[in-house]
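Lest this sound abstract, we let one protein speak, letters for residues, whole numbers for local backbone shapes, and leave readers to judge:
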Amino acid sequence: MNRLRQIHAYTLRNGMDNTKLLIVDLLEIPNISYAHRLLDHTPSPTLFLFNEVIQAYSSLRQPLPFLRLYSRITLFTFLFAASASLSSPLPGTMLHTHFLTSGFDFDVFALTALIDMYAKLGELGSARQVFDETPIRDTPIWNSILSRYARRGYMVEALQLFRAMPCKNVISWTSIISGYSQNGHSADALKKFLKMEERAFRPNEVTVASVLPACVNLGVLEIGERIETYSRESGFFKNMYVYNALLEMYAKCGKIDAARQVFDEIGSRRGLCSWNTMITGLASHGKCNEVLELYDQMLSEGTIPDDITFVGLLLSCTHGGGLVAEGGRLFKSMGSDYGISLKLEHYGCMVDLLGRAGKLQEARDLIRSMPMKPDSVIWGALLGACSFHGNVEFAEEAAESLIELEPWNPGNYVILSNVYASVGRWDGVSKLRKMMKGENITKAAGYSIIQEGGEIHKFIVEDKSHVKSSEIYAMLRGISAVMKIRKQATVFECKLVEF
């Protein structure tokens, strides 16, 4: 022991750094208290030294010094996490400076929390700088910066990070899939999911809840049903996000009976999201009576509706046979019964309901009474109703507002042109065509999506961009020839019968 004290004194006098060797030797004696004091005076202690002293205290069953040392390591992790919830990045920046000067910048847990803190505070540039300056990056640090880019919608940068990762795990794949799905890139989300399966990674609950909405948007029900089977086998239906994602898939993909079965299966665990999804799904299928019954059940079970609930209710009145009186009652009850502020979506539903019922004057009066500026959905609903009922005056007003809001949209010109044509106003039709030509406005080509062999393919009319387009067209010509032969045979048989 005296020898170690002499060595320690010698190193201090001569500015030498033998701290690591001294602490290790002191722990072997053992003289833990001396080693601990030496650690406290070390300017930049390594994680190795902390672990050595912590293990020594643990072996002697001395929990208090053990916990104090452990808290020194984890303190910054918790502080960074707490700072992420603040409105200003200044406290977090000050902590970051203290973190660097304290010598704990080796702690990967704290570095991950630091990256998360900057990203949550909207300082993605600072988060990336911390990441770039980190010499040793484990998978959690990669996942932290990747998920933040994906959540903010910077999918090009997120994909670059994903491809650069030396070691990916399920969280990495889920982050990129979720990013694509949440930012409207459904095809990319599904492609990444299928690639994830090819690489033998098993999706978790978050992966499933992220990819099912992509299946909804693409209409690939077959893949969604396969994911449901996998989720049931894996026990994922303890997670309500998975349940609600599946419910939404069936409700939006036309399998309303399957959606109702899932809804009933959720039972007492149903939250407002489940009720809203089922109500909206039934409404889009024109099942107004079922919607109103479900709404009454929802109220009786103590669930309070929100603004989304009323969008579904008003839609049901529109698609369920034009229940104008019931829709008006629900529209008024939002504010009077539940204190819910009317939004553009609710006005849009009421304008659509009144317009379809032929009450165009009431629809226009409602638009003029709105406390906010009508958007393209509001005016579009009125224009569509005017097209159906042949009202040129209101159609012109709606189209004028729409052209001001979205001059690039050819649909508004086309609908007004159809209104003019329906009443023989060919001068109006000619004027609109000249306007579209002068503004270089063209109608976008429609496209179809098909899923085959685990891949998503998009195509337009006479599309020849696919690598197998020659084979596809050869097959189409063959099918067409067979259909013509069968049609000729059917006509011949009919003539024989007539004869």
